[in-house]
Amino acid sequence: MNKAKPMNKIGKNKRAVKSTALLTSRSVRALAAEMILQVLDQGKSLSALLPEQQSAVKPQDFPLLQEICFGICRVLPRLERITQFLLDKQLKGKTRIVHCLLLVGLYQILYTRIPAHAAVDEVVSAAKGLKSDSFRGLLNAVLRRFLREQEQILAVVDKHWQTLHPEWLVNKLKKSYPNWREIVEENNQKPPMWLRVNLQHCSVVDYQQLLAAQEIAASSTNHPQALRLHQASAVNLLPHFEQGWVTVQDLHAQWSALLLEPEDNELILDACAAPGGKTTHILEKAPKAKVVALDIEPARLQRVSENLDRMQQQATVVRGDATQPEQWLEKIDFAAMGLEVKSKSAVQFDRILLDAPCSATGVIRRHPDIKWLRQETDIAPLVQLQGQILEALWAKLKPEGILVYATCSLLPEENSQQIQHFLAKHSDAKLEPLPFAHNDEIGHQFVPTEQGGDGFYYAKLRKIRA
Questions:
Q1: Is 272 annotated as a binding-site member?
Q2: For the segment 9-19, what is each residue's pLDDT rounded down to a tens digit?
């Protein structure tokens, strides 16, 4: 049987838990059902939907909304099997919103500390706000039946181990990883929260002590800037967060700037830069570097600018398609960067960090809706796009320059096979060693682990002079 770990208690004790359940806005359940419907039936991402709804609920209720939405996506197949036992006829078409509201109720009963009766009452009440008032009786009856027959139903539902993943993805993991079961299990858990300490302000040890003074426990690791929080924390509780002393960034994502090895006064491209964690890390390592942060999505580029402002750093933020460098190079004011450029189309970079668009199968535990948003048919077009970006940006790299290729994918066709194919086509490309890679590896693949980071792939390429 595969069950994600239940969430921590909401509040500090049972009285606080009950109080939270009673005070929570009734719209939270309705909003959760609406967002789950948009994920499952319209292919929308929770990463896009949740920020849009943040102002629709009380600030103290947003964590619950987030918990319910991510949680349902994490254990969706288990909840769906339970509904098959509870309903004589599945809710389809216009009644799908009622089905999603049922998923909200089941998730709360199974995975939160909200008292069962309160969870049922709130879900039944939420039906009215979804113009599904006529289904209140059905929801009440079905959820209370589950409370009565929970033990018998779960005995059948959980008789066999469940991957809680789509079959196509499980099959791909089986082909690539002897330890695929461990990866699947880890994908179904909540991710640890990692911090990157800005060494320009504070050492890792000193920041750990600042956290301890706030009663926030953290552990260091072999990465020179990383701390893992024992429990997730709101960023406003992190000491000097707004002053740029620390950034929330996964452990394995933190290797990108270190592998790039940026130096002051170099012209550096951070391609597909949003939301900006890697851009700011590059500037932490080389404050005088001339960094161009490129992304194709305007809304995500705004996040890059916000992060740069918080860190009090300067970079050139530009919107553009990474496969078409000539188009966005024309937008850049190189003179403002202190560079004399005769022809913008002929500009070449000292270093390029390519965090390529990918399936994101390595960050499923952080974004569990990926399991249901991504389709097997998405992979081949992504592989083709990655290859096109690699080709386009390689032409914009100086001789003896460094390109770091990174993805948050677990699939070899996006990672080692992509680089192997690129090396076979480019005699001027040399694979550089990585500090954590084995001798026979093409780059290095990180997989998600309980105490470690998410799934990431890295390859470091040097452009050899002709």
A1: yes
A2: 333 333 333 33
Q: Do residue 81 and residue 206 come from a single domain?
A: no
Pull the structure tokens for residue 366: 């952080």
Amino acid at residue number 73: C
Q: Is 231 exposed, middle or buried (0-12, 13-18, 19+ CB in 10 A)?
A: exposed
Q: Is 321 annotated as a binding residue?
A: yes
Least confident segment among 22-31, 218-227, 258-267, 418-427: 22-31
DSSP letter, residue 112: S
278 annotated as a binding-site residue: yes
| Average pLDDT of span 383-412 | 98
Q: Report pTM.
A: 0.91
Q: Long-range contacts of range 60-68, CB-CB < 8 Å, 24 or more positions apart?
A: 60/23, 61/24, 61/25, 61/28, 64/10, 64/20, 64/24, 64/28, 65/28, 65/31, 65/32, 67/7, 67/112, 68/28, 68/29, 68/32, 68/104, 68/107, 68/108, 68/112
Domain tally, the chain? 3
On whether both 244 and 153 belong to a single domain, the answer is no
Confidence of residue 414 (pLDDT cuts 50, 70, 90): very high
Q: Is 371 annotated as a binding residue?
A: no
DSSP secondary structure string for all residues of 362-393: GGTTTSTTHHHH--GGGHHHHHHHHHHHHHHH
Closest C-alpha to 262, from 292, 233, 242, 234:
292
Pick the closest to residue 158 from 367, 4, 370 (CA basis). Answer: 4
Give percent of the chain above pLDDT 90: 91
Q: Is 14 a domain residue?
A: no
Whole-number pLDDT of residue 22: 36
In terms of residues, how long is the chain? Answer: 466
Q: Is 273 marked as binding a ligand?
A: yes
Residues 72 and 91 in one domain: yes
Query: Does residue 182 fall inside a structural domain?
Result: no
In the chain, what percentage of residues exceed pLDDT 70?
94
Active site positions, annotated = 408
**33 labelled binding-site residue:** no
In a domain, 283, yes or no: yes
